[in-house]
Amino acid sequence: MNTFFEQNATLLLENPELAEAFQKIMILQKFSKNSILHESGKVCDYMYIITSGVARVFYYKEDKDITCYFAAEQETVTCIDSFIQRKKSKYNLEALEDLEVLRIAHSDLDNLFESHPKYEHFGRLFLQQLYIDLVERIDDLLLKTAQERYETLLEKKPHLFQRVASKHIASFLGMTAETFSRVRGK
Question: What is the pLDDT of residues 114-142, one digit of tens each?
Fold first, then answer.
């Protein structure tokens, strides 16, 4: 699966000024496995570009933790509800492996776009990709069977099945552990 940055690498390569501007606002940061990068109930001030490792976004419902997003190398992750709207998030962000990221502060990104309106094009492309991913996720959950959701994830992100606990994948797919085991066995 192509990630946003792979899809738009040409934009960065053709605009060294844009690439340099992003490099100036990115900070390399490391998190150990099981670290919480963002806790629900707080405003999310950062987005992360993962250089190594896997992270997930999840929330709690009736004492169950529900995974709603995974990100791995060259993908971005944040608690988007809070990052964009500047409100307290209902989501948590967790490192599922030791994680190395490039961290971008909301304020730095906002300042970059405000001081260089020509860079907002990149921001718009990023938001369009988030929208597309969200629509595909909703379609998967509403229109596909458990088997189809499993096959779609296996096709798009096969690496997750070796790197992420089955309980998190089952949760992401909207299945019980038993259903996941049955579907996986087919």
Answer: 888 878 887 887 788 888 888 999 999 99
| CA count, 13 A, side-chain hemisphere, 19 | 10
Rounded to an integer, the average pLDDT of 44-54 is 94
Collect all residues with Cβ–Cβ distance below 8 Å to 39 and sequence separation of at least 6: 92
| CATH entry 2.60.120.10 includes domain 4-105 | yes
By three-state DSSP, how is residue 4 classified?
Answer: helix
How far, in whole angstroms, is CA 137 from its chain's centroid?
12
The DSSP code for 119 is G
Does the structure show a pLDDT above 70 at 11?
no
Instruction: Flag whether the pTM goes above 0.70.
Output: yes
Domain limits of the chain? 4-105
- Alpha-carbon torsion (118, 72, 79, 181), positive or negative: positive
Any idea what DSSP says for residue 51?
E
User: Please, what's the b/e burial string for 150-168 (b: 16 or more CB within 10 A of its CB; e: otherwise)?
Assistant: beebeeebeebeeebeeeb
